[in-house]
Amino acid sequence: MLEIEVKVKVHDLKKTQKSLFSSGAELYRPKYFEENILYDFPEKKLTKSNQALRLRTIGKKNILTYKGEQRKSRKFKIRNEYETEVKDKNQLKKIISSLGFKQIFTYQKYRSEFRTKNLKIFLDETKAGKFIEFEGKREDIVRFTKKMGFSKKDFIKTDYITLLKEREI
Q1: Per-residue confidence at 63, pLDDT binned at 50, 70, 90?
Q2: What predicted TM-score, i.e. pTM, was given to this entire model?
């Protein structure tokens, strides 16, 4: 599936939630905790080509995701993304390790999910800061973010791994 997304840094979660509701979004899933583990080959083949293999755990639910190379876009992160739910996290880790992958990065965040007719919207709290992430068609993202008072100048394509590593420096 083709994923088109963009983040915007926010400072006040309550104000941002109010803006989401007044702009027409509805709460889809209240705040929850998730852990994300990223894997790569020892020579960092995926990282070097801007791809990712991620295991996300939300409660007892485990989701394996492959994110393909990013397509060219100045303001949006666009890439193929494939994911599937996995029942046995420990067995999956053994499979991944047997295929030669190594765990390269782990991060956690709190996330709330919102929806509109055409968008998935995530309000994220990470050690790198608070962000709102929009997924959908470019024109729908631009239209909705404008309603919220954001412009394309506010858009961030950077992934959480890079944002977290930059914060550590």
Answers
A1: very high
A2: 0.93
16, HSE (Cβ side, Cα atoms, 13 Å): 20
pLDDT digits (tens, 9 = 90+) for 99-109: 999 999 999 99
Q: Which amino acid is at 150?
A: F
- Asked if 66 contacts 45 with a C-beta cutoff of 8 angstroms, the reply is no
| Domains detected in the chain | 2-168 (2.40.320.10)
Structure tokens belonging to residue 113: 């999910």
What confidence category does residue 43 fall into, taking pLDDT thresholds of 50, 70 and 90? very high
For residues 123 and 132, is the Cβ–Cβ distance under 8 A? yes
Tokens standing for residue 132 = 């709102």
Residue 93: strand, helix, or coil: helix
Question: Are the C-beta atoms of 127 and 107 separated by less than 8 Å?
Answer: yes
* Tokens found for residue 16: 């941002």
At residue 13's C-alpha, the angle toward residues 121 and 124, to 5°, is 45
d(CA 154, CA 162): 17
Question: What whole-number distance in Å separates Cα of residue 126 and Cα of residue 22?
Answer: 25
